[in-house]
Write a sequence for this structure.
């Protein structure tokens, strides 16, 4: 497919369809039509930079979008540039008030913007408007809705993996997993997935599609898992075009998406925080936005109590002071009794894995393992983790000698499902066209507990 470019000729001031302007397309390779990086204007000519234009409307078409804008009343303006993502910019053919983009990808959300160009440089971009190019005929949205029918609504959770926060007003770590829960069991799960587009807008304004897949946890709830952790410092948007979409038939009635399902759900990620615990080296390296910032010595689970491998995600479950008791692990107190108070406890799993101070273990930190599954740390280090982590932050364990983290064991569990198995939970990515909604084997009741 060609890279996006700008189109529409001079004089096209009235509403036109995409099909009517196909002969006027001017396509340009990504990043070649105009420099892709924003530049700071020279201080001597700042006053001459044009004002930003105002976008009136963006109309999506098949692999295209048409932007209607109000031209800037400034005789110095020589032209306009349009962008599908705030990063790549293309020259509009004229200053008519209409400009279009072509060679877009159907079903993907774009954050379309526009800027004016003059001798002193480019204006700031106009406020971006979301649009999703669509094929001419949507098989899930007939012109006449079938009867009898029932409307389906949905509830969105940004922190759908039990982080203890909603994510509506709080920035989240890159390990959060959002969910949509519908008011009815959904027979046609592929139709749902077809009408959900996931994008990330970074601080520089660039919007990109997020590779990943929806996985159905049951007949009503779908969770989106990116193939990699979310990008940090980004606005994540899940744009739904499920309004008036036919989602199957149940008990003689067609299920149709509520009008309210035509909306965009969003949440924000904070800086990317990923701590990697190396069980072989007995160290934790903390990476913030991809750069190593901290290294801590640790001691993990001893033989028979090996700390689990895999990604674990931090929630709001923290305790400044906690007492770890051998009785909570079912240990024979005549053989191994302990009652250990510890400070700065950050929980990782419901089975009892914590990051915490272990004053009794200082001699083995960075040298050998000796805990019952928890991550033992120096007090200052444990306090730093306690103070500087937020719900959704990731702690990834490698080479511990333990089993892989179970999918049902805490907020990070589903990050450890192999990608090919996760795709079986998606109706679109499953060869059978059906989503596997069966529960993962095992449960907390049968799990080995962890302790100090």
């Amino acid at each position: 497919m060609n890279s996006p470019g700008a189109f529409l000729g001079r004089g096209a001031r009235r509403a036109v369809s995409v099909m009517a302007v196909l002969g006027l397309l001017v396509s340009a390779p990504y990043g070649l039509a105009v420099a892709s990086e924003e530049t700071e204007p020279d201080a001597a000519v700042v006053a001459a930079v044009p004002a930003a234009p105002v976008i009136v409307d963006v109309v999506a078409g098949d692999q295209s979008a048409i932007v209607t804008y109000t031209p800037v009343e400034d005789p110095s303006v020589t032209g306009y540039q349009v962008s599908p993502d705030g990063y790549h910019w293309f020259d509009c053919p004229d200053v008519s008030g209409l400009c279009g983009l072509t060679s877009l990808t159907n079903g993907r959300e774009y954050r379309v913007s526009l800027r004016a160009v003059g001798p002193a440089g480019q204006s700031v971009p106009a406020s971006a408007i979301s649009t999703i190019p669509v094929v001419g005929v949507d098989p899930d949205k007939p012109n006449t809705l079938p009867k009898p029918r029932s409307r389906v609504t949905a509830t969105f959770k940004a922190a759908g993996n039990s982080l203890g926060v909603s994510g509506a007003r709080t920035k989240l770590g890159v390990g959060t997993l959002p969910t949509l829960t519908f008011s009815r069991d959904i027979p046609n799960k592929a139709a749902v997935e077809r009408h959900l587009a996931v994008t990330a807008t970074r601080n520089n304004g660039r919007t990109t599609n997020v590779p990943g897949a929806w996985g159905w946890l049951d007949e009503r709830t779908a969770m989106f898992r990116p193939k990699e952790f979310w990008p940090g410092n980004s606005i994540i948007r899940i744009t739904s075009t499920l309004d008036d979409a036919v989602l199957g038939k149940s008990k003689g009635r067609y299920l149709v998406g509520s009008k309210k399902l035509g909306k965009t759900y969003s949440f924000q990620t904070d800086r990317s925080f990923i701590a990697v615990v190396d069980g072989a080296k007995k160290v934790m390296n903390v990476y913030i936005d991809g750069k190593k910032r901290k290294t801590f010595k640790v001691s993990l689970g001893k033989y028979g109590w090996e700390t689990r491998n895999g990604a674990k995600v931090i929630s709001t479950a923290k305790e400044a002071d906690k007492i770890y008791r051998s009785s909570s692990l079912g240990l024979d107190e005549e053989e191994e009794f302990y009652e250990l108070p510890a400070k700065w406890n950050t929980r990782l799993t419901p089975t009892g894995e914590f990051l915490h101070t272990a004053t009794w273990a200082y001699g083995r930190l960075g040298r050998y393992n000796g805990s019952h599954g928890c991550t033992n740390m120096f007090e200052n280090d444990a306090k730093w983790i306690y103070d500087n982590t937020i719900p959704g932050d990731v702690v990834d364990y490698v080479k511990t000698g333990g089993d892989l983290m179970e999918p049902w064991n805490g907020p990070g569990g589903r990050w450890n499902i192999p990608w090919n198995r996760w795709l079986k939970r998606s109706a679109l990515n499953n060869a059978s066209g059906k989503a596997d909604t069966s529960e993962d084997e095992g449960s907390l009741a049968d799990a080995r507990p962890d302790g100090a």
Remarks:
- Residues 273-446 form a domain with the L,D-transpeptidase catalytic domain-like fold (CATH 2.40.440.10).
- Residues 89 and 220 are 41 Å apart (CA to CA).
- Residues 9-45 have pLDDT under 50 and may be disordered.
